[in-house]
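Progress narrative, Year 2. Work on DNA-(apurinic or apyrimidinic site) lyase from Vreelandella vilamensis advanced from sequence curation to structure prediction during this period.
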Amino acid sequence: MPEGPEIRRAADRIEKQLLGGPIEDAWFAFDELKPHAASLIGVSVRCVDTRGKAMLIRFSDQRVLYSHNQLYGVWKYHRATTEPATHRSLRARLVVQGRAASLYSASDVSMWDADSLHQHPFIARLGPDVLSQPVSIDTVAERLTLPAFHRRGLGGLLLDQGFVAGLGNYLRSEILFFAALHPKCRPYDLGNAQIQRLVQHIVDVTWQAYRQAGVTNTEDWIKKAKELGETRRQWRFAVFAREGLPCHRCATPIERIKVGSRRLYLCPRCQRNA
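Result:
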């Protein structure tokens, strides 16, 4: 499933596709959305926002189209006169100045008033979104002290969208590696320096993944990995998907474990469970 940085980059592309004029055509597959199609003609897209892994297309009349890709949803960008080459099922389409953004295969799509969007059951339980909201290091650090999060293992906590929205499996492994923390560590067990290191990497690694299209590794380590013949899937990460390969920092083989029924990669030397 795409993580927050991938959804934010998709939102940027949709925004570029749909800004610049009024909507010329709108189509929805779901019966509850079909009445909105005609009334969107002439309305403009104000911006395309995200909350975690949810996409929010905000219109000038204060309506908001919510969508969540889940496992199979995907947005495609194309000329309105050219159908994308796909066998997926079309769910929604918006057209502006002959440019179309089409949503395929997603099943979680709905229209909301901007004032009531906070009541959406998914949005309502989300923590702050590092990429789409003004989230400071101090904000994330304060959340680690909350009773709901303070005594939970980091391996599970970093996937909890109620803690910080948009973090997913590869970001979890990368953040913990750069913070030099084992997934069983709890915020309760950490000293101030460890907390600061953790929250700094939650913010920094997420922003790097967004800016560099999913690359979270350092430039020096990427260069070394390429020289050793690693594939992009391997060199783009510091630890994720690198099972058996040497740790960039200490050369210990990277291990793959399961935490919360999902794979997690770590260096057993750099991330010792104290």
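The domain at 4-124 is CATH 3.20.190.10 (N-terminal domain of MutM-like DNA repair proteins). The mean pLDDT is 95.
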